[in-house]
Design goal:
- The chain is of the alpha/beta class.
- It contains seven helices and eleven strands.
- The strands form two sheets. A seven-stranded mixed beta sheet has the order 3-2-1-4-5-11-10. Strands 6-7-8-9 form a four-stranded antiparallel beta sheet, with helices on one face.
- Helix 1 packs parallel to helix 2 and helix 6 crosses helix 7.
- The mean pLDDT is 95.
Length: 242
Amino acid sequence: MGDTDDYAVSAEFYDLLQAESDRRLAERRFADAADRARRSILDVGAGTGIVTEVLLRASRVPVHAVEPAPAMRAALLSRLAHLGADRRARVTVHPEPLEAAGLSGIADLAVASNVIACLDPATRRATWKAIAAALVPGGLLLFDPPPGRLPAEPEPAVRLGPVRVGPDLYSAEVTRRPHRGVLRTVFVYRVQREDEVLREERETFQVWPAPAELIAEELDAAGLHLVTAPNADLMAARRPAA
């Protein structure tokens, strides 16, 4: 949901290293709410389509998948190609940022998975307003919130993989450290064959912390009110019923 050049490196490695864990997380977080949707579902920042697929399988309604990054959208469309014509018929892919998509009163459920923390404050506020406009009265938003504050020290590195593809091992090391008011997150991807590093690629993202009180204020200003979330690692908000 940021610059359209985002994920130009990560898209190659994303599903290989993260799809299975992301799918399990999405099923736990969103499947029940998707099953209850009766109008349509808005997937904000659809990425490679892991959450989109979960929403389609759990529901019977149309899904609007918003993904402005070309590299991730290519992976999203590749995933949709394998889901079958009946499920593809229920998906609309929006290639622009949500605030530019002009969606109004189309969904009774919106989900934003691994998105909100990646938005700078101005874009985050614009996104709340666009979500509120896209929801029907009484519509529900589910999202994982950004960290409440910056850590005092760099966080321990996290390793993804390795995953074997033929003779090669694919892996990533993820480091997160505070830097000028944001959490600078660096993914270093490696492809190894035996003991030789064939390739090393790097991509950096920024995470903007925001305490829960600020998120609540921004939601309220956009016309969304906090409600109890179905999972402890999520926040939830509703557009008030008319």
